[in-house]
Amino acid sequence: MAIRKMPIGIQDFEGLRNDGYVYVDKTAYVYKLATEGKPYFLGRPRR
Fold it and tell me: Is the pTM of this model over 0.85?
C-alpha cells in the first residue's frame, strides 16, 4: 500500500485530484449539519 500525499498548501481542486493527494468529500456531513437538529457552533482552533 502506497502512502498518499496530504494536500497542504494546494489551492486548486484539479491539482489536488491529478497529483494523487488525499481528498475526503464531506458534503453529505455538511448538508446533514445544516438541515437536521439544532444549531451548531463551528469554531476554529487558535494557533
Answer: no
